[in-house]
Amino acid sequence: MTSTWKPKRDFGSILLGSSGERGLARRIRVQVLLTSSLVVANLIGALCAIGLATVGIPLPSIFLPHLWWVHFIALPIYVGMAFIVGIGWGTYSVTRELKWANEDRAPTAREAKRFRRAPRTLVRLQALLWAGAVVTFTLMYGIGEPDLIPKVFFVVAMSGAVVVAISQLLIEFSLRPVAAQVITAGYRPRRRGGVRTRTVVSWLVGSGIPLVGIILVMFFGTFRYETSKMDLFVGVIVLAAIALSTGLLLTILSSTSVTDPIRSVRNGMEAVADGDVDVDVTVYDGTELGDLQAGFNAMVGGLRERDRMRDIFGRHVGRDVAAAALDTDPELGGTERTVGVVFVDVIGSTSLAAERSPSEVVEALNTFFSVIVGSVESHRGLVNKFEGDAVLAIFGAPIALDDSAAAALSSAREIAHRLTSDVPYLSAGIGVSYGRVVAGNVGAIERFEYTVIGDPVNESARLSELAKRDPTRPLASGRALEAADSAESRRWEEAETLTLRGRSEDTVVFAARNSGADE
């Protein structure tokens, strides 16, 4: 069996956890990621410095006997101090400022402002420590051997630039979960450069500075007679290797900061394309990409609102009427249609209101109406309107049916049967008619409704009054039975012939043989 489980990537990486993670777990995760990021960045910088100082720019050599105190005393002390201050104290102070995130609450404006400063503070701290290393070791090595000043300055400065660039990208990556909380709280960070700045910095540190280094190696090697062609070759190769490796690393980190937000939007779009509009992407980026994520959420929110309004609209006027109105530009007026009409009128609603509280009456009527709506829609009819405690249903408009008369008759029998079993405390007279009506939008251009007007509507209402004598047996006009198929007609029998109230012609009235649903 193939597993369909996929790791949660709300923030673009499984390392960052999910948006549902809170409290201490999130703090530990952020602390570990920040510390690991700075350790990795500084380790890469140290390797660059060692490679450049020993192989990349071998001459003049730093391994001179009288510089032992720099190698074995000053350098370890400074590195240890930088580790404690830059990594230990730096990450601790940042996570301490994120106390609100650990308490699972939204930040205040002041706390959000402090968070926005946190990545810059850590990056500046790394830059300050490496700038201190540039000054300190340039002076120390320069005191013992002045020829080492250009070499030490370039080696430490270039390594520091690599560390700062990598640190910035990794710190932003590690703080994505907290950035998402800040943005969700309504504090969007002010963009400083955005994606373009990230790209330029990556190129500058990964390619620009190493290229400058190659130029300098060639320049100084040309004017130093003791520099051999092999020394130049090795130096260029090392600098090129550093450019390739650091450039690749920075390109990957920079592109990841771009592709992760885009991927989250793409996944969201795929979900929407599959019909799921109950989806939001986590906004964690403060650049133009964050605007893209927020824009996607706004779009999906609009789709959800549209579907909600469509659903409400369909509940008010009927699904088919709503679909027709949304597909075309609705206008006033109508067209002649031949339809089946069912009119259902509650018996004893006045006594029901007197015996029960208003909320109980509403609950009883809702149960009553749900039976009717379910039966009508199962026969592809339209519940056109609720008139107090009565219901008017239409079969054959706005959606045409092959046998609208049979659908109306079958629905009437089912309603009578279900009311007896599902709503025993309420009964109703049910009348069915059939004939030509005008179906369309009636009212004013500012406010109208879909309805049907014609003699079959009046006839079904009169028949429902007669049907109150025996609510278990719906009554139908002879026209409805003549139009229905033989299978449905056999379920009805002629009951009487009379002149309905408000009519001048006699109506042949049929009654259902039983009140059961379709067998």
From TrEMBL:
<dbReference type="InterPro" id="IPR029787">
    <property type="entry name" value="Nucleotide_cyclase"/>
</dbReference>
<feature type="domain" description="Guanylate cyclase">
    <location>
        <begin position="340"/>
        <end position="464"/>
    </location>
</feature>
<comment type="similarity">
    <text>Belongs to the adenylyl cyclase class-3 family.</text>
</comment>
<dbReference type="GO" id="GO:0005886">
    <property type="term" value="C:plasma membrane"/>
</dbReference>
<dbReference type="GO" id="GO:0006171">
    <property type="term" value="P:cAMP biosynthetic process"/>
</dbReference>
<keyword id="KW-1003">Cell membrane</keyword>
<dbReference type="Pfam" id="PF00211">
    <property type="entry name" value="Guanylate_cyc"/>
</dbReference>
<dbReference type="InterPro" id="IPR001054">
    <property type="entry name" value="A/G_cyclase"/>
</dbReference>
<feature type="transmembrane region" description="Helical">
    <location>
        <begin position="122"/>
        <end position="143"/>
    </location>
</feature>
<feature type="domain" description="HAMP">
    <location>
        <begin position="256"/>
        <end position="308"/>
    </location>
</feature>
<keyword id="KW-0472">Membrane</keyword>
<dbReference type="GO" id="GO:0004016">
    <property type="term" value="F:adenylate cyclase activity"/>
</dbReference>
<protein>
    <recommendedName>
        <fullName>Adenylate cyclase</fullName>
    </recommendedName>
</protein>
<feature type="transmembrane region" description="Helical">
    <location>
        <begin position="232"/>
        <end position="253"/>
    </location>
</feature>
<feature type="transmembrane region" description="Helical">
    <location>
        <begin position="69"/>
        <end position="92"/>
    </location>
</feature>
<dbReference type="InterPro" id="IPR050697">
    <property type="entry name" value="Adenylyl/Guanylyl_Cyclase_3/4"/>
</dbReference>
<feature type="transmembrane region" description="Helical">
    <location>
        <begin position="32"/>
        <end position="57"/>
    </location>
</feature>
<feature type="transmembrane region" description="Helical">
    <location>
        <begin position="149"/>
        <end position="171"/>
    </location>
</feature>
<keyword id="KW-1133">Transmembrane helix</keyword>
<keyword id="KW-0812">Transmembrane</keyword>
<dbReference type="GO" id="GO:0035556">
    <property type="term" value="P:intracellular signal transduction"/>
</dbReference>
<dbReference type="Pfam" id="PF00672">
    <property type="entry name" value="HAMP"/>
</dbReference>
<dbReference type="InterPro" id="IPR003660">
    <property type="entry name" value="HAMP_dom"/>
</dbReference>
<feature type="transmembrane region" description="Helical">
    <location>
        <begin position="200"/>
        <end position="220"/>
    </location>
</feature>
